[in-house]
Amino acid sequence: MSYKLLKLNSGNTIPSIGLGCYDIPLNQTVKVVYEACKVGYRHFDTAVLYGNEQEVINGISQFLSENPSVPRSEFFYTTKIWNSQQGAKQTQNAIEKMLSQIDQGNLQYIDLLLLHSPLPGKTKRLESYGVMQEYVEKGKIKNIGVSNYGQHHIEELLNWNKLKIKPSVNQIEISPWCMRQEIAQWCLKNDIQVEAYAPLTHGYKLEKQEPEFKKIMEKYNKSPAQILIKWSRQKGYIPLPKTKTLSRLQENIDIDDFELTKDEIEVIDQPDVHDPTDWECLDAP
């Protein structure tokens, strides 16, 4: 699999598909991540909330140790500051712990650190972002951004008089049944990449496809997951499909041998449906 790399507003690049590591059983995480590295994944998304940061680091580190010809720079490791860790001192403590986890592996730095949500409120989220900026300046974090942010949250940040580093990413739930077109297109127009989490709807929609969707699957001989991941990519997003099933790791990134037509994308689109499978906080104050 040859990864397409997308340019972030920081000047760095990000692989165009990542492995979402939410809810992978802790005793399987190292193996899943390691096997993902073997089949070609180079982008891994975890969070403090997921409780498996060290296991994700260890899986990547194991692969790097066994493959010294593969440079660390090929990999992209993302984690997130949880709500209870927002606020200046709390975020500093959280980042120091994250860096100690990195030191136990051989990743050396964090590629992307996100604020997991805007829910702690304006004061705390701006304090946290300020601390994140400081660690970018120290070279320990390469890129920073946000998750589950609505347009007004990002505008608040862009208008902040202490902003030094524009958020490079907004990670939000996106699928054909939760399209979030307005915020997604606004982010892209403002040079903020959109990461699409739960692009496979946590599996809820995979077995219940309409006949027209099934025709598209049959035409390209692809699974519903592959069609959904391709849909997300062609929309200009960075999908983060999650699987704990080793046999599906390869399948989920084998999407470069077909292109959906404009008409097929319109068939898959469900603009009149809003059915998120996860939390809803883009409208939070």
TrEMBL record:
Membrane-crossing segments per the record: none
Span of domain NADP-dependent oxidoreductase: 24-270
Keywords: Oxidoreductase
Site feature Lowers pKa of active site Tyr, where: K80
InterPro entries xref list: AKR (IPR020471), Aldo/ket_reductase_CS (IPR018170), NAD(P)_OxRdtase_dom_sf (IPR036812), NADP_OxRdtase_dom (IPR023210)
Recorded superkingdom: Eukaryota
Reactions this protein catalyses: isatin + NADPH + H(+) = 3-hydroxyindolin-2-one + NADP(+); (R)-pantolactone + NADP(+) = 2-dehydropantolactone + NADPH + H(+)
GO MF, one example: 2-dehydropantolactone reductase (A-specific) activity
Gene Ontology biological-process annotations: ketone metabolic process
Name this protein carries in UniProt: 2-dehydropantolactone reductase
Organism of origin: Candida verbasci
